[in-house]
Structure formats: structure tokens, C-alpha cells
Amino acid sequence: MTSRVLTTFWRVSPGFKRPSRALSSITSIFETIPREELVTKFKSRLRDRPFLPGSTGGGFPEFLAEPRDSFPHGVRVHNRNQSSLAELTEKCMEYMEENIAHSPAILFRDLPAKTTEDFITIAKTSQMNRSYIGGTGYRTLLDEESGVATGTDDPPELTAEPHNEMSYIPNFPAKVFFFMLNEAADGCGGETPLVKNTELISKLDPDVLRKFEEKTDPICAIYA
Predict the structure, then answer these.
(1) pLDDT band of 19, cuts 50, 70, 90
(2) Omega of the bond prior to 53 within 30 degrees of 0, cis?
(3) Cα–Cα distance between 197 and 45 in angstroms, integer?
């Protein structure tokens, strides 16, 4: 079975600053998920993967790396008070804002969300400016008000390599949300790899990085 992923975006002004606070336990409804529970049973092959640029070159990793202790930071949501999805979403947004500076990728599990309409509720409750204007991917907009769309309408055999979402526009998204509507069976794809840009930049050839930094074209600078 092919997975189906929905997505929406948050935009903020270019001067937005994220809070720099340590991991917080703002309520008792969040329980940290051990790294072992985030490791998938199936290893996703990268080397020689069809339609993945560079996968046939030397030095390409054979498999997708496993999650680390804090990347992504997974939490299980306990709904002891039988709160509504909107109420739980508000708590999740508070948790995210308090922790995102130290945990740039957060996975929320066990929310009572199973349908497209549920994800639309989550997106609307966030009350942020959402838009895919300027995006170049093939996606189907499912709800205009919330900005919820399919993750991609590309054929399932294609692989989208890691990228900075809409980094080519001046006011790019501050946050990207994904919602797994249909989970794929092991070996059928659907993975969403995460990359820390700071670590990626540290691995680039300094001469190549310097050439990007010297560019006056903002598009070149952003892609760097």
C-alpha cells in the first residue's frame, strides 16, 4: 500500500526569532518516546535507489540513518481528560514553541487524528498564516483556509531528496507540518528523512561553501 502524507506550512516575518528555552514539561500530557521506539523495522535503502540523484556515486550511505536520542524528539500525547482535538492541538503548539529551539523536529503521537478533516482542524487551530504560493511541487490543495495539501502528487517510484522547503522565496516557511494519513507497508516507501542544516554545512567543502557565501544573488545564498 502506498502511503499518503498531508502537509501545511507556517509563515512568519523574516525577523522572527525562536525562543531559546530548554525542554519543558508544560503539562503532564506529554511523555517522551524512547529512541528505540522510533527506529523502523525496515531499513530504507539509499545507495543505488532509483531516481535519487547521486545515489550511484561513491561514498553514498547504504541505508537511511536511524533516529538519534533527540532527533527527532518524539512525544506521546496522553488525553486523560478527553480533550477535543483542537484543545490538544493548542497544547502541542505551546509545547512546540517552548522546545523547538533545542528540538527542531518534533513528532507527536497518539493524537485523536485519523482523517483529512482532523488534520484540517489541527491546521486551523494553529492560527498561523499558511500558504503554498510560490511553491513548485505538484500538490493537491485539500482545504484553502487551512492550506492543507497532499505532500506530493509525484509518482510513488520517485524520490525527493532533502531540501529546504521553498527556500527560494523571501518569506519562506518557518515550520512545516506533516500528517500520515495512510501508512505504507515496510519496503513500500513513504519515508520523510530529516537533515540538520548545521551538520550538512559542516560536511561541505569549505571552498564550495565560500563561493556560495560570496554570491550577491540572494537565491544562491539561500540555496547555500
Answers:
(1) very low
(2) no
(3) 22
Task: Give the Å distances, CA to CA, from 166 to 10, 89, 131, 152.
Answer: 12, 25, 11, 14
H/E run at residue 89: helix 85-99
Q: Are 35 and 68 in contact (CB under 8 A)?
A: yes
> What is the value of pTM for the model shown?
0.81
What are the cell numbers at 9?
506550512
Distances (CA, A) of 102 to 14, 88, 105, 171, 200: 20, 22, 9, 23, 17
Can you tell me the distance from the alpha carbon of 134 to that of 9, in angstroms, rounded to the nearest whole number? 12
CA distance linking residue 207 with residue 214, whole number of Å: 11
Query: Which phi and psi angles does 76 have, rounded to 5°?
Result: -100, 135
Instruction: Indicate the pLDDT class of residue 217, thresholds 50, 70 and 90.
Output: low
- Which of 91-100, 120-129, 141-150 bottoms out in mean pLDDT, i.e. has the lowest? 120-129
Element (H, E) at 91: helix 85-99
Average pLDDT, stretch 184-190? Answer: 76
φ, ψ at 201 (rounded to 5°): -65, -35
